[in-house]
Write a structure and sequence with these properties.
Layout: H1 3-20, E1 27-28, H2 33-42, E2 47-50, E3 58-63, E4 66-73, E5 83-89, H3 98-107, E6 112-115, E7 121-128, E8 134-135, H4 136-158
Antiparallel strand pairs: 1-8, 2-3, 3-4, 4-5, 5-7, 6-7
């Protein structure tokens, strides 16, 4: 093989290696609420960031009439948050028993149900985005899981 052919083979091998190397996924963490808001909106859901001086920020949203919050948690003075919590509740379902909510927790994964201080059944799901974060696609997938859980929880709470 001549010198030009050897260089060409090396160049093609390098190009082939570059083309087969997976692209690095964009990592998302909870430090920037605007990024999380954009992901919520990419699901087709409205999103409003609420940031009050001295409090951790949160996002108000709804999906198919189900209102929920995305709470930014483990923050440093309302900034540099590390985790998220998806939260929803039903103030018109106080008659749901703790035994029924415990049964939900026994049968379902990824989120937990309980009664809040007002006696309302609520559902929460934690998402850890600490350190460098997780791929954007995975954050989007947590919202798909959350959507499914919200639908199931509504049916479960109002089932007679």
């Amino acid at each position: 093989m001549g010198p030009i052919t050897a260089r060409a083979a090396t160049a093609f091998a390098s190009l082939a290696l570059l083309l087969t190397t997976p692209a690095h996924a964009e990592l998302v963490n909870a430090a920037n609420p605007e990024t999380i808001k954009a992901i919520v909106e990419s699901q087709g859901w409205p999103a409003t960031i609420v940031a009050k001086e001295g409090d951790d920020p949160y996002i108000e949203s709804n999906r198919g009439g189900l209102k929920f919050l995305v709470l930014f948690m483990n923050c440093d003075a309302g900034e540099r948050c590390k985790t998220l919590q998806y939260y929803m509740g039903f103030s018109d379902a106080k008659d749901v028993t703790l035994d029924r909510l415990n049964q939900w927790n026994k049968e379902k994964r990824f989120a937990r149900a309980y009664k809040d201080d007002a006696g309302d059944p609520v559902l929460e799901m934690d998402v850890d985005l600490d350190f460098q974060g997780i791929p954007r696609e995975n954050v989007g997938e947590t919202f798909n899981t959350w959507a499914s859980l919200m639908d199931s929880f509504r049916a479960y709470v109002f089932e007679k």
